[in-house]
Q: What sequence folds into this?
């Protein structure tokens, strides 16, 4: 996944910082150099590129604002070669995860009738004769929005469609098994994509395949780790303030100073090996960090 490293900060809105990764400009190069035949003036290529930027950015803000709505935490948005990434931390509940992910594609769904009206007006007024560049631009933007929606809804992890599938499977199968299933389905989709890459010999599709492969493998490893944690006996005296899950018993936290494992709840956040003090303890289920004094009793 892209990070803010190698990215340029462009603005901050609703407390969310938007970055553009240097790889995003590769899309601009493609738009300006390989689509010059589409319009009579390069200005329209610039306008089309900025429209793609706006559609992707609106999609990512859909994720961010939906995550806030369910009580999650929002971070940055990074636009890069394959679109955008909204860094969000929704509560570890299937419904919260589902809404946070589905809100992005829903933005594209809402934009369909808006662009459809504009396309219909352009056809009715016969702009293909009087304003051919504007006519082509409106049709191209309509297709770009549809294409982004279809691409994102493919049930391949970590695309939105794969994560939506994972959230739905979470209800009957649980957190770890749903991630297992989504990752395996992602690998199946990846196999089909690799065949398409070989047939089409597309460098762009090859890049997408590598991206999906890396994230499916990471999802598979995360699912195995979650499955192992789920089998460990739990403490009966406290629960995470965020996900309400009791922490597992055992030396499962690692000291950031000496690297030794220890049970932070037995030592009240103090490493017994080097006496380093840790003010915050990470929940191994949801990843949130809290002071030990904030961890609640299961009845509270």
A:
């Amino acid at each position: 996944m892209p990070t803010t490293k190698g990215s340029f900060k462009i603005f901050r809105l609703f407390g969310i910082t938007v970055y553009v990764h240097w790889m995003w400009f590769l899309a601009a190069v493609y738009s300006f150099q390989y689509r010059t035949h589409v319009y009579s003036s390069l200005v329209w290529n610039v306008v089309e590129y900025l429209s793609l930027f706006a559609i992707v950015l609106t999609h990512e803000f859909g994720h961010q604002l939906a995550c806030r709505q369910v009580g999650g935490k929002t971070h940055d948005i990074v636009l890069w070669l394959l679109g955008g990434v909204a860094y969000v931390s929704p509560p570890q509940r299937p419904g919260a995860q589902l809404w946070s992910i589905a809100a992005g594609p829903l933005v594209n769904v809402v934009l369909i009738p808006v662009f459809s009206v504009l396309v219909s007006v352009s056809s009715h007024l016969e702009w293909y004769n009087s304003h051919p560049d504007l006519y082509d631009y409106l049709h191209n933007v309509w297709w770009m929005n549809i294409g982004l929606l279809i691409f994102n809804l493919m049930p391949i992890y970590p695309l939105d469609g794969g994560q939506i599938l994972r959230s739905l499977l979470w209800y009957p199968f649980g957190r770890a098994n749903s991630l297992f299933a989504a990752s395996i389905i992602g690998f199946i989709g990846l196999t089909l994509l690799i065949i398409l890459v070989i047939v089409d010999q597309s460098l762009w599709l090859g890049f997408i395949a590598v991206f999906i492969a890396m994230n499916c493998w990471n999802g598979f490893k995360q699912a195995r780790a979650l499955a192992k944690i789920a089998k460990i006996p739990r403490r009966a005296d406290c629960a995470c303030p965020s996900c309400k899950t009791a922490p597992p018993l055992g030396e499962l936290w690692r000291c950031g100073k000496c690297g030794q494992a220890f049970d932070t709840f037995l030592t009240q956040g103090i490493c017994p090996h080097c006496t380093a003090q840790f003010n915050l303890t990470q929940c191994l289920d949801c990843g949130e960090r809290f002071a030990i004094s904030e961890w609640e009793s299961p009845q509270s």
Notes: The chain has a mean pLDDT of 88.
